[in-house]
């Protein structure tokens, strides 16, 4: 199977600390690299990750709170100084476009590459990116301002050739593409050889959902049903649920409840409040509900 990895660049909340940076991740999927959110200092984290700046083809911004967007214009400037020529696509809330264009005029007026801004309607679920192998959909969330999560999904691939069975039945190599598409083989005697004998099933498709920032939404589980790996914010423990309600964030237990109800395989939690020097209480609280939970940490990599 081709790589499908989540590179954690930052997993703190609004205030940077000595341990955690503001929110940012890179999704590596089928040879493509997409950034989600771009808090302060993200470009430094990209350098530390070893992922080349030139590999990032698009940035997805969930909402326009500073801890999710303040690193973007600086990174765009650095891309220009590094000699980037490939276009960069920005997907962000439609209300962000005017501010982004102003920042670009002030700080990045002489770039030698194109920036294409794609306004996102955060109020509805829709496909905002699609190519031959993947789709990216929005997931409406409930926060203090318009906010959207993102769902990265692989498309079903072709079946795998079984070379031993091809040789056994004398199938010419010219038929490989047809076999990958699921077409049966008819030999010179008119006998049909079922495709299932000549091929192996395609790799199972995988998906990754990013949900930050949001108040606990019981209905969100239906939107995430069957997702392979889920990232869900877990800003507080249950003993600070009053703050979660006030600021429209989630507790670790609520993140785990969403993962369990959605039937996901793996849960990643992050967006920790600066109050937690040690995040183990958050992890323990989540694992009481959903055992396959993992703490995010800077420069950690998770396989989907």
Short key terms for the protein model shown above:
alpha/beta, 18 strands, about 300 residues
Describe, in short, the structure shown:
It is built from eleven helices and 18 strands.
Question: What features would you describe in this structure?
Answer:
- By secondary structure, the chain is of the alpha/beta class.
- It is built from 11 helices and 18 strands.
- It has helices spanning 42-49, 66-69, 72-81, 97-107, 163-169, 176-180, 195-198, 220-223, 241-247, 252-262, 280-287, and strands at residues 4-10, 24-29, 32-36, 56-60, 88-93, 115-120, 127-130, 134-140, 148-154, 160-161, 185-186, 192-193, 199-200, 207-211, 229-233, 266-270, 293-295, 301-303.
- The strands form 4 sheets. It has a 7-stranded mixed β-sheet with strand order 6-5-4-3-2-1-18.
- Helix 11 links the parallel strand 16 (266-270) and strand 17.
- Helix 10 (252-262) runs parallel beside helix 11 (280-287).
- It is globular.
- The mean pLDDT is 95.
Major β-sheet strand ordering: 6-5-4-3-2-1-18
Query: Number of helix segments?
Result: 11
Largest sheet geometry? 7 strands, mixed
The Rg value, from CA coordinates, equals 22 Å
Q: Secondary-structure element sequence? A: EEEHEHHEHEEEEEHHEEHEEHEHHEHEE
Shape: globular
Counting DSSP E segments of at least 2 residues, the number of strands comes to 18
Strand content: 25-35%
Runs in which pLDDT lies below 50 for 5 or more consecutive residues are none
Structural class: alpha/beta
Which bin fits the share of residues in helices?
25-40%
- Distance between the ends: 11 Å
* Average residue pLDDT: 95
């Amino acid at each position: 199977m081709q790589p499908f990895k989540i590179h954690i660049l930052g997993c703190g909340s609004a205030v940077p600390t000595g341990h955690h940076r503001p929110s940012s991740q890179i999704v590596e999927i089928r040879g493509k690299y997409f950034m989600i959110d771009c808090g302060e200092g993200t470009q430094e984290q990209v350098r530390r990750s070893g992922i080349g700046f030139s590999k990032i083809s698009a940035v997805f911004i969930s909402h326009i709170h500073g801890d999710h967007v303040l690193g973007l214009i600086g990174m765009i400037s650095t891309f220009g100084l590094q000699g980037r020529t490939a276009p960069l696509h920005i997907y962000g809330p439609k209300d962000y476009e005017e501010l982004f264009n102003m920042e670009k005029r002030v700080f990045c007026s002489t770039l030698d590459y194109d920036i294409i801004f794609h306004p996102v309607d955060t109020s509805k679920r829709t496909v905002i990116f699609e190519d031959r192998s993947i789709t990216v959909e929005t997931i409406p969330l409930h926060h203090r301002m318009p906010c959207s999560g993102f769902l990265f999904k692989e498309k079903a691939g072709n079946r795998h050739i079984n070379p031993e069975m091809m040789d056994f039945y004398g199938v010419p190599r010219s038929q490989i593409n047809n076999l990958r598409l699921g077409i049966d083989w008819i030999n010179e005697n008119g006998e049909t050889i079922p495709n299932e004998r000549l091929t192996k099933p395609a790799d199972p498709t995988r998906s990754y959902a990013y949900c930050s920032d949001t108040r606990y939404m019981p209905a969100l589980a239906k939107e995430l049903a069957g997702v392979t790996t889920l990232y869900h914010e877990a800003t507080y423990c249950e003993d600070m649920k009053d703050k979660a309600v006030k600021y429209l964030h989630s507790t670790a237990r609520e993140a785990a409840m969403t993962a369990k109800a959605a039937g996901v395989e793996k849960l990643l939690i992050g967006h920790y409040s600066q109050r937690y020097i040690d995040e183990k209480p958050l992890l323990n609280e989540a694992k009481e509900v959903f055992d396959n939970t993992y703490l995010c940490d800077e420069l950690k990599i998770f396989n989907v």
